[in-house]
Amino acid sequence: MTINGWIQIFAVLAVAVATAIPLGRFIASVAGGGQSWLKPAETAIYHLGGINPAKGQGWRAYVVSMLAMNAAGFLMLFIILRAQRVLPFNPQGLDGLSPWLAFNTAVSFVTNTNWQAYSGEVALSYFSQMAGLTVQNFLSASTGIALALAVSRAFVRGGVADLGNFWADVTRVTLYVLLPLSILLGFVFVALGMPQTLSAYVSAETLEGAKQTIPLGPVAFQIAIKHLGTNGGGFFGVNSLYPFEGPSALVTAIQIWAQAIIPFALCLTFGRIVGDVKQGRTLLFVMLGFVLVATFAVYAAETAGNPLLTALGVDPSQGNMEGKDIRFGQALVALFTATTTGASCGAVNAMFSSFTPLGGLVPLFLIQLGEVLPGGVGSGLYGMLVFALLSVFVAGLMVGRTPEYLGKKVQAREIKLAMLAVLVLPATILGFTAVSMVLPQALSSLAHAGPHGLTEMLYAYTSAAGNNGSAFGGLTADTPWLDTTLGIAMLLGRFAYVVPVMAIAGSLAMKPKTPEGAGTLPTHGPLFAGLLAGVILILGGLQFLPSLALGPLAEHVVMLAGKTF
Q1: Residue 404 belongs to what H/E stretch?
Q2: CA distances (Å), 496 to each of 422, 440, 490, 547, in order?
Q3: Fewest C-beta in 10 Å: which of 79, 102, 413, 487?
């Protein structure tokens, strides 16, 4: 690790936090209908959809609307992927995807997971990328933000079921937040070297005289929403490691900023909605603290190098550079890894399978902690609020007092629903991993034996259920078993989680706000921040430590012994 490396890390995070402050204020204004500079377009959408934005919805109606939009999005994307052979903008002449892969991919992009069991440049047409994947990049991101806004409103309303209007929230978030930011960032990426074209692929002659096909496409603007919406699905198979998707260290720094800014900003939006900015800052500080610790862990592990490679004569001076690009350096790779897996983004600028065992453990564990650090756009905030409710419950048990959070009494119903949501992740991840590790059709997809092979399978289901989308590498994921079960894991991780969270919001919205008393636990200071961080760590550690011990921790011990599997 170097001083220069840490300067890069702190500079990128400082810019992200500084720009998140005005963005958080702006999103709060959008949530309240305070922006009108695109009012004609907004009104036209409401008219075409038969939507009354002033008509509020209870949590059930809000969830039904959300599920209906996502079901329609899945069906549309599935049809596009299957029929891309006969659709326009297919200069490569690519056939449609198989039913299994089309199902997996459609579920993946609708749930904001963006898991890719294919390489985009050899599997998808320009039309599929633009009209299929990019559309869902916007809608899945706006869905997450809308849900976060609905949950936030529950803490300021009393005795009413109204959490807002889902259709109005999605429309406003897309028009006023995601589209302008994506257009601006898309132009920046074009200026910095990303292609944005409908031209066919180019054939070039190499220095050796061989022919090489260079893939092109409408890359820049898809990559903009890929990061801003914490989608993560790349235009090219190797994602931001590909020169056209990650041309330089500057582009990498901007991508890190893009995938962190909205999750950071939503914490501050929450503080403004509930009328106490300190509450939002506390959540932001917890998220930022975990990002820094995770970055340090990856940075330290990867710069320490791999003794197995050193024994083979590889220069250890730059640490473990396998699977990385010298253009980015260890510091930006470490920060990118921490933010992309902590933020439910799933984009990568290095291959996690080539990390040292402890370096690879960090992104795996960040996803298993619930994708709340800082989490996906929207999903990070409402996931963090679930842990906040559990934290005040634990504190209430310690002092024998009914727990409260922002003036709302947290009772048995809310805690049962919170635990139901929290248990979705371990049940899905560990259940599917356990079954897959004994089925021959699943084991045949592994590229490695021993602890590394277990980590490959564990990471796949962790990434799917956590709606992250990054891959550990080495796993042949395009099989009927993995396409289907990973798709189911994505659905459970997104919708089986959010339904109880919205039920909590509905329950809290009906409760009156109670004034703070002498025994009320302050939830905006370092004490509560430490308690919240501890609850997140304990829940993640207790549920996943045994599997981590059998995977990356065991592999680390084997590596130190100078052996491999």
Answers
A1: strand 404-405
A2: 10, 29, 10, 23
A3: 413
Measured CA to CA, the distance from residue 213 to residue 219 in angstroms comes to: 17
Q: What is the pLDDT of the chain when averaged over all its residues?
A: 93
Nearest by Cα to 403 from 500, 509, 246, 528 = 528
Contact by Cβ (8 Å): 303, 330? yes
3-state SS class at 65: helix
Residue among 35, 276, 61 at smallest CA distance from 174: 35
**What is the spatial distance between Cα 335 and Cα 378, in angstroms, rounded to a whole number?**
21
The DSSP letter of residue 200 is P
The average pLDDT across 348-362 equals: 93
**What does the pLDDT read at residue 422?**
93
**For residues 405-417, average pLDDT:** 92
d(CA 551, CA 129): 35
How many other CB atoms are found less than 10 A from the CB of residue 402?
12
Q: Residue 434 CB: number of other CB atoms within 10 A?
A: 13
Continuous segment of H or E residues that includes residue 306: none
- Report which secondary-structure segment, H or E, holds 67: helix 59-82
**Cβ-Cβ contacts under 8 Å for 238 (sequence gap 6 or more):** 119, 348, 351
pLDDT tens column, 473-486: 888 999 999 999 99
Confidence category of residue 310, pLDDT binned at 50, 70, 90: confident
Strands, E assignment, 145-228:
202-205, 211-214
Structure tokens at 435: 């079954």
- The stretches of 238-324 forming alpha helices (DSSP H) are 249-273, 277-304, 307-311
Give DSSP secondary structure letters for 427-494.
Answer: HHHHHHHHHHTT-HHHHTT-S--HHHHHHHHHHHHHHHHTT-----SS----SHHHHHHHHHHHHIII
Q: Say which residue the tokens 């008219």 belong to.
A: 47
Distance, in Å, from the CA atom of 469 to the CA atom of 348, rounded to the nearest integer, reads: 10
Confidence of residue 565 (pLDDT cuts 50, 70, 90): low
Question: Tokens standing for 288?
Answer: 């930022």
Alpha-carbon separation of residue 524 from 18, 221, 412 (angstroms): 20, 38, 23
Evaluated on CA atoms 432, 434, 439, 444, the torsion sign reads positive
Positive or negative CA dihedral for 478, 484, 485, 486? positive
What is the pLDDT, as a whole number, of residue 539?
Answer: 83
pLDDT of 290 above 90: yes
CB-CB neighbours of 307 under 10 Å: 15
The pLDDT score that the predictor gives to residue 313 is 84
How many C-beta atoms surround the C-beta of residue 209 within 10 A? 6
The label of the residue with tokens 């550690």 reads 541
CA 559 to chain centre: 30
Rounded CA-CA distance 367/475 in Å is 18
Q: Of 85, 115, 38, 101, nearest to 347 (Cα)?
A: 115
In whole angstroms, how large is the CA radius of gyration of the chain?
23
